[in-house]
Amino acid sequence: MPTPRGFLPISSLWKFGLLPGRCLLCGMASHRAMDLCEPCERALPWNLNACPLCALPQESRISRRCAECQQDAPFPDGVCSPFLYEDDIAKLLSRAKFSAGFAGLSLISELCTTQFGAHAPKPDVLMPIPLSWRRMARRGYNQSALIARHVGKALNIPVDLRALKRKRHTPPQSELSRSARLKNLRGAFEVRGDLSGTSVAIVDDVLTTGATAVAASKSLKQAGAARVTVWVCARTPSN
Asked: Taking a C-beta distance cutoff of 8 angstroms, is the pair 132, 169 a contact?
């Protein structure tokens, strides 16, 4: 699922015209206006057969929801996840989160933007999953906010960094079971302002059990949001 060359802004095309791209994955010249060569792009773990509601990969390309979502859909307004959290995508996102791998994060954001843009209807605003002040101070940046800014600029959708707030610091979700994650995030988010009738897309890097996105979605719906979709770069293959 290659990204169209014409998607890049003029400034990026000028940059690559002067300094040809070099693939971040194999290190070879990309021969295109992107730091990713075509063979490496084709080899990425694209999430092609996904449930339209939760984005979990399915055995075949179908339009109907997965068995779990048929019983109880955790994301009734849908999830868009262009990639699976595997292989090179997992490496790039992990590097972006813990080692300030901004070049890789920019590349993934660029690749995802086309897929996000095709996920109708277009939201009124993007809201990245916020970090607690403690984690923000330790890391120095919010990777989800960086993704949201890149996507918002490309798709001409405003990004709101203030409405959705994390009320308290919570232990890392990766250390907890699914039930513990849900309990851990209970009451973790608050929304400032009235979102009545607003269509929101939550932006994050990875969706695993979905506990974080579910908690944030509930807070946004309670504040009046009419529709809350979830845009993530990558989906783990299972909960």
From this structure: yes
Query: What is the C-alpha separation between 32 and 13, in angstroms, rounded?
Result: 9
Q: How far apart are CA 186 and CA 181, in angstroms?
A: 9
Q: How far is Cα 72 from Cα 132, in angstroms, rounded to an integer?
A: 30
**Whether 144 contacts 103, CB under 8 Å:** no
Question: Does 154 score more than 60 pLDDT?
Answer: yes
Q: Is the Cα torsion angle 146, 202, 113, 155 positive or negative in sign?
A: negative
Contact residues for 179 (Cβ-Cβ < 8 A; gap 6+): none
Q: Which two tokens stand for residue 233?
A: 């770069």
| Amino acid found at 147 | I
Give kind and range of the element (H or E) at residue 109: helix 102-117
Record the tokens describing residue 223, joined without a space. Answer: 């504040």
Query: pLDDT tens for residues 2-59?
Result: 444 334 444 444 454 455 688 999 999 988 888 899 999 999 999 988 998 999 998 8
